[in-house]
């Protein structure tokens, strides 16, 4: 029976710590940029090969994560041929690239800093780096709502899910997940260009995030026990009650858990490319949104990240020895 070795334990912990310490410096080369270029090239090939856009989408949706898995595994095998430590270091770095805790925290805190100085224009600009909605006319309250929503939602696909797959299958599986997530962010849109082509990738991303999103029902309430004034019971109840309200099968659960824990209401109208759409209201409006909710959401995200690491590693040790 396979076991969860000390080397694997060390790799996961080290990758998490590396992300926590340095985040995602813009000057540092990132495999996701290479992945994005590869997706663009593959899209052109698929559109040429397949008359049916859905068939082209299936080709892309299988080709990209498969390539990411095989490429990552090959790199690690090659590095390990020099020494065990060399292979471990490569695995650490590749898993680190899949995690986004520090990056999300830095981006959200930068928005908060601009709000605290009263610079709404700069806050909107910083917000536009991490959300897909239009930010040009948002007031301070809407900026806070958007920041909290994106922190909560990305707690799943930027933290819980990659950690889950890293513990389950190491760097290759984590990078394959990252490939699917990148695909969804690039072609998983319901517009004329990508409705059919991106359908498979969007559904694949939903499937991979399905369990991690629902683990928020456990992880966020546990985190709320540590945060002063956060409500763990409300996080649990709101997550179960309002999580399924979202049109997305997954994003509603972390948003609902965060909303319940903080005692705020999320959702409402958003504008995407000038088109206004309504999101279901999630949570109870016990008070108005405030700037400090961004700080609380970031703190909750950090705790959930650490808890995810501990829970997944412990479960792996228990199940495989």
What does this structure look like?
Strands 1-2 form a two-stranded antiparallel ribbon. Helices cover about 70% and strands about 5% of the residues. It contains twelve helices and two strands.
Mean pLDDT: 93
Distance between termini?
8 Å
Secondary-structure class: mainly alpha
Number of E-type strands = 2
Order of H and E elements = HHHHHHHHHHHEEH
Low-confidence stretches: none
Gyration radius (Cα, Å) is 20 Å
Work out the count of structural domains: 1
- Quick one: overall form? globular
The proportion of strand residues reads: under 5%
Q: Please give the share of residues in helix.
A: over 70%
Biggest beta sheet summary: 2 strands, antiparallel
Strand order of the largest sheet: 1-2
Count of DSSP helices?
A: 12
């Amino acid at each position: 029976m396979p076991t969860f070795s000390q080397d694997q334990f060390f790799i996961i912990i080290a990758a998490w710590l590396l992300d926590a310490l340095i985040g995602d410096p813009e000057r540092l080369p990132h495999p996701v940029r290479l992945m994005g270029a590869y997706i663009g090239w593959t899209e052109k090939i698929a559109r040429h090969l397949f008359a049916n856009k859905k068939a082209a989408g299936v080709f892309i949706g299988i080709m990209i994560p498969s390539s990411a898995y095989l490429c990552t595994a090959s790199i690690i095998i090659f590095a390990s041929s020099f020494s065990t430590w060399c292979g471990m270091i490569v695995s650490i770095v590749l898993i680190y690239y899949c995690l986004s805790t520090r990056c999300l925290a830095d981006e959200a805190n930068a928005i908060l800093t601009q709000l605290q100085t009263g610079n709404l224009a700069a806050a909107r600009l910083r917000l536009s780096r991490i959300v897909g909605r239009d930010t040009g006319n948002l007031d301070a309250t809407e900026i806070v709502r958007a920041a909290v929503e994106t922190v909560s939602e990305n707690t799943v696909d930027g933290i819980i899910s990659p950690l889950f797959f890293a513990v389950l299958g190491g760097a290759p599986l984590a990078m394959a997940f990252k490939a699917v997530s990148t695909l969804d962010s690039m072609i998983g849109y319901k517009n004329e260009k990508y409705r059919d082509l991106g359908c498979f990738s969007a559904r694949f991303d939903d499937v991979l995030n399905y369990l991690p999103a629902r683990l928020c029902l456990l992880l966020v309430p546990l985190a709320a026990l540590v945060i002063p004034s956060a409500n763990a019971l409300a996080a649990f109840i709101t997550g179960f009650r309002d999580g399924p309200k979202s049109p997305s099968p997954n994003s509603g659960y972390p948003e609902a858990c965060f909303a319940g824990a903080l005692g705020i209401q999320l959702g409402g109208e958003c504008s995407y490319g000038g088109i206004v759409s309504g999101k279901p209201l999630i949570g109870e409006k016990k008070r108005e949104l405030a700037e400090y909710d961004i700080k609380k959401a970031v703190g909750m995200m950090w705790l959930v990240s650490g808890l995810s690491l501990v829970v997944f590693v412990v479960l792996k040790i228990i199940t495989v020895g």
